[in-house]
Amino acid sequence: MFDVLAFDADDTLWANEHLYIMKRERFIELLRPYADPDLIGKTLDETEITNLRYYGYGIKSFALSMVETAVSLTAGRVSGEAIQAILQFGKEMREHPVQLFAGVTAVLAEVGQTHTLMLITKGDLFEQESKIARSGIADCFRHIEVVSEKNAETYDSLLHNYGIAPSRFLMVGNSLRSDILPVVEIGGTAVYIPYATTWAHEHVSSHTDTTGYFELEQINQLPSLLKRLT
Ligand SMILES: [Mg+2]
To answer: Whole-prediction pTM value?
Structure first.
């Protein structure tokens, strides 16, 4: 039924969002002498979303947003040491090992026997390429695409470039906004595997229509779903 199975990477194949949550907590601790913790968290979230249009996604963007939030919440009084600590948060995130979710390697090996596998991830090219290389699973994929945004136009143009009919394309991911809804919109099929935490920007408000996609609890269930669909 499907020729190409495409996978999102962050929080679909490996854990990612928890790194941001951990450093967000450290950042709140760092700025606690200057502002209310809730205000710090809220300001950082808003700054990150505003800054997407300047810096795109990823750790560098997150680090710049932390610096900007620190400067603004302290009215410019934040110390050089604190800025240095913030920059160090970013470097630690960058060097954190890529931790695959349980079963990922086996699932890719199994479904790769019958389908062409593709990796479609969004974010900073340098950062995503490094994670893919360190993941140890790059060889499982025939095609790897790092894109700056995942919307219907992105998927449309990828499928066009590879000569894939939407009806033969299935996308697996943890984000309704980036991996599921745009694929359904262009006539493809999607498998939604929610992750424990989802970044505020990826939330889709009051989404109730589940037409056109399947939902699984974990990636280990993918092979049996594919068998049911064929
Ligand atoms: Mg993801």
So the answer is: 0.89
